[in-house]
Amino acid sequence: MNVRALLRPVRRLGPQKLRTRLTLMYATLFFAAGSALLGLTYGLLARSLPTQPPATATVNSQELSNLIRECKSAGFPPKGERLVPVPPKPACKPAEAAYYAGTAAGLQAQRQHALSNLLVFSLAGLGAMTVASGGLGWFMSGRVLRPVRVITETARRASERHLGERLALDGARDELKELADTFDDMLERLDAAFATQRRFVANASHELRTPLTVMRTAIDVTLAKPSPTERQLTDMAVRVRRSIDRAESMIEALLTLAVSDQGKLSTEFTDLATWAEDAIDAAAPEIERLDLHVDAELDPAETTGDPQLLERMISNLVDNAVRHNEPGGWIRLRTGSSDAAAYLEIANSGPFIPDDAVPSLFEPFRRMEARTGDRDGVGLGLSIARSVVTAHRATVAARSRPAGGLDISVVIPHGLGAESQP
Asked: CA-to-CA distance for 57 and 92, rounded, in angstroms?
């Protein structure tokens, strides 16, 4: 059993509220500082107050007259002087001893009285001020902790449906203001994440429903016929197979997107040029069907990262350039490496895309089918590419070409791929 386990029951006996603990801490610190100051003052005053009369006493004229009458010795100064040193003379020793004894007793009594009054009044004042400091500490800690209570209440109200609240704490840029701003930023990110999740789930449900509806319709139409022919059954099988392939591609894309969004990557040495060459070879039948001209300069682009995700990203970029092209068009692909990063650039001809529509192409299930007339894609290619790039702490940029088509560039800094591994 460690020390923390032994101290846990003791901590439970103390106050649990932070405001109460702060109040007790303020009062305790004030009491400790006041006690130290009182002890120092008491000690200095005790040292400064004499306990014995000085070696050479000074007396006034009345005391001097009494001494003269007692010892009746000669050689004393005249009576008119107010303060006269009393020299030690053998004839006056009894009177002098009595005088010194009375003076010492008076000094000792005066000293004890002064120290006692100092101690009593100081302790009373210290107790009163300790209570006052506790009350003031309770008030001030309440004001200081007010933003924390606001944050706590907002956090309790926050849920998936109530993420629009913001603290918007004003005042000095202190630690509590930074905490409130950080909490507002967290709510902003959560609100955006939940909105994206709801939109993604809704789009995914809609997109997955489409191939299922096509399959059900094809089967129902064929079975509704009294005696379907072999040709009709074959057509139904082809439609069902095409819908299954579409659903399978979408599910695979969704899984890839989920993996890349989680950021759980393996880190291996890889070359973007190799994956780019494989992607061109995989798209060769479609490139040949559309009679596309491919201009590829694949210089080594070595980096570290997740090979499967990087391969899927490049494959999606090439597939996007082929799918959203036009017959007789072109594709330009470049890979390379500099001292700071590995890069991949891909450009293609195709329909014109407005500049303000380019960022939306990286959102899930966003297509330009209204302009291209193509519905074969699942609308996840560029969103997967962006997710993979983000997981590798890289950057992706896209811009519309004036003559139609897109220019897309991916830059993966050297050394960042290894840091992405959890």
From this structure: 13
Which segments of 263-373 does DSSP mark as H helices, in order? 272-282, 284-290, 307-323, 369-372
What is the torsional sign of CA 216, 218, 222, 224?
Answer: positive
Q: Are 29 and 134 in contact (CB under 8 A)?
A: no
Q: What is the pLDDT of residues 277-295, one digit of tens each?
A: 998 988 898 999 999 999 9
pLDDT at 374 over 50: no
**CA angle in degrees (0–180, nearest 5) for 301-304-306:** 110
Tokens of 320: 């996007």
pLDDT tens-digit series, residues 225-266: 888 888 888 888 888 888 888 788 777 767 766 666 665 667
User: Rounded distance, CA 349 to CA 167, Å?
Assistant: 49
H-helix segments, 14-92:
18-48, 61-71
Q: How many CA atoms lie within 13 A of 399 on its CB side?
A: 4
Rounded Cα distance, 266 and 307, in Å? 8
DSSP 83: S
Q: How far is Cα 337 from Cα 123, in angstroms, rounded to an integer? A: 79
Q: Of the ranges 24-33, 169-178, 352-361, which one carries the lowest mean pLDDT score?
A: 169-178
More confident residue, 9 or 421: 9
CB 408 within 8 A of CB 397: yes
- Nearest-Å Rg of the Cα atoms of the chain is 46
**331: phi then psi, degrees, rounded to nearest 5:** -135, 130
Instruction: Compute the distance between CA of residue 270 and CA of residue 260 in angstroms, rounded to an integer.
Output: 17
Q: Give the mean pLDDT of 129-139.
A: 84
Distance, CA of 293 to CA of 214 (rounded, Å): 35
What is the secondary structure of 344-359 as a DSSP string? EEEEE--S---GGGTG
Around Cβ 136, how many Cβ atoms within 10 Å?
15
Please classify residue 305 by burial: count the beta carbons closer than 10 Å to its beta carbon, then call 0-12 exposed, 13-18 middle and 19+ buried. Answer: buried
Q: Which of 334, 303, 295 is nearest to 414 (CA)?
A: 303
